[in-house]
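Hi everyone,

Forwarding the result from last night's run.
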Amino acid sequence: MLNIYSYHNSICTQKVFITLAEKGLSYETKNVDLFTNEQYKPEYLKINPKGVVPALDHDGRIIIESSLICEYLDDICPDPSLVPADPFDRARMRLWSKTVDEQLFEATRELSFSAMFREKMRHMTEEQREGRFRNVGDPIKRARLVSTYEEGVESPYVFQGIASFENAFAKMEKDLKACGPWLLGHNMSLADINMMPFVARLDYLNLLGVWMADRPATQAWWKRVQELPSFTDAITDKLPETDISAMKTFGGRIADRVAFHRSRYLLLPKASA
């Protein structure tokens, strides 16, 4: 039996949901409310000591880290395969996983927070806010959260996130033009699935257009993604209309500043290849 500890608007969990849908696997979900800090309760920390979602419970065996969960699902259900057979292509796929895990996750978190969740925290009591900052645990993550709460889209961490997305979209366009229609070639893989929820979040925040102009291969990839039943099942159908409306409203308010900061980044000198 597969049990997924999840939150409906968790971008990392959405990767797992897409993989499950592509595999046709049955599963049950156990909701962990991130905004009320359920992820920090002792009973959940026994499952995932990092205090994040998702976590997979497969007949009592716990797997954490969304990219690892997706590869685990491909291992236990190899048909249809979402991992390339060629070792070089597998390495390329894992480079996309690293890009998502090490750069775009934080970038999406800062953009989402500065656009939307910051407003929710403003309506908390000071005691509730301090409790949320305190519960983060990791001092680096706490510093990012405090900065984004206090400075919003002007936070240097948001600027870093904008730069990370610019670099990722530039690489997407290059790879898709070289070998498309998917990131690794003719077949969709976990490289594509890793990217899907992050691009979707920008779209919901009314921010995707900042990066999509003059990138026709990436635009075609995004159109293809949106037509996938697995994408609809994992993201579109699971998001409440209230969340979608809030993301579009709050994201639209910072779109001009995001575009401005992207233009600032583009003017910076880049290291030669």
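The CA atoms of residues 60 and 142 lie 32 Å apart.

Cheers,
N.
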